[in-house]
Amino acid sequence: MNLADYIRDIPDFPKPGILFKDITPLLASPQAFGHAVDQMAAHYESHAIDAIAAAEARGFLIAAPLALRLNKPLVPLRKPGKLPYRTYSLKYDLEYGSAELQMHIDSVTPGARVLLVDDLLATGGTMAAGAQLIQQAGANIAGFGFLVELAFLNGRERLPQAAVYSLLTY
């Protein structure tokens, strides 16, 4: 199955000059979506991973079924005010402003090996912030997993030194 057949290009979204990679056709096909999760699970099943973390919202779509397949806890990285318990928090800069991620203080244990997962790697800002948040909690980065990578944006360069795996690269 060619997963690229399930990624739709949307020109000029969210602004002129951007070619958006839309994963909703993949999500709409249980066979394609399942195949993508199976491929990621097969890649990571032999890796030393204690937990899987993902930033909202699209990261949850990939990380949740992957965490189930690998029988690992899922660590949600959320926007401020979305988590009910005490949190670690990290503010970071994006191309068009700033953002903030939070996670419960008991989400990971010190020394845990955490895989960060998202639907798409573009410039790497959100995943770099997620990695800093995981490290703030005393855990280690086991790697980064993506459904799609836009290699021409050099997002890998912003990520800490850890293995990056992408199912599709453009």
Automatic annotation (TrEMBL):
SUPFAM superfamilies: PRTase-like
Subcellular location: Cytoplasm
Domain Phosphoribosyltransferase: 32-148
Reaction(s) the record says it catalyses: AMP + diphosphate = 5-phospho-alpha-D-ribose 1-diphosphate + adenine
Keyword DNA damage applies: no
Family membership noted in the UniProt record: Belongs to the purine/pyrimidine phosphoribosyltransferase family.
HAMAP family: Aden_phosphoribosyltr (MF_00004)
PANTHER family, sorted: ADENINE PHOSPHORIBOSYLTRANSFERASE
Protein name (Swiss-Prot/TrEMBL): Adenine phosphoribosyltransferase
